[in-house]
Design brief:
The protein is an alpha+beta fold. It has 2 domains: 87 residues; 82 residues, 2-Layer Sandwich (Gyrase A, domain 2). It contains 4 helices and 4 strands, in the order αααββαββ. The chain has a 4-stranded antiparallel sheet, with helices on one face. The two termini are 47 Å apart. 11% of the residues are buried.
Length: 186
Amino acid sequence: MEIKLNLLSEAKKIEVRRKKRYRFIVWQEIILVSLLLFYVGILAGIYYMNRFQLRNLESANVSKEQEQAFREIDSAEKKFQSVNKQVAEMLKFQKEHTKWSNFFIALDEVIPEGVLLEKVSTVDRKISLMGKADTRDALLMFKEKLNASECFQNADIPLSDLFTQDNIDFQLDVEIKKDCLKPGNL
């Protein structure tokens, strides 16, 4: 028979889970960037090898068979240029990509005790948060923290959600500032 002792508090468990998620996201981004760099390196190497061969063919007296090879190399070079453009666009997209992890980190920092989020939905930069609050004071504190945060603005709770004193099912609408969704912020 095995006895298991749970020595970690609930807050430490949540912190451990959060750190694991963060490490996983960072790991994925590192792998993606390294794969892209590896791919770009291979393409650049092939491009320069083809360019070198192309120059050698141009300097020699080209026969009909070699001329056909020249055309194939030229078309391959155009394909490589096209692929390189696509990779550059992908890197540009990744650089300008919205970092939703920043939003979740900022949101986690402003959620007070007694407030539990059950659903988060977004339309552009407008966020709708649904959940439960133990007390009206906890819900109002949550709204105040959102409005005071550097990442959120215009937090709004419908008046109907404030009529109940305890165990409140709420829906809160808030806008996230554009700067908080860019990479490197927070």
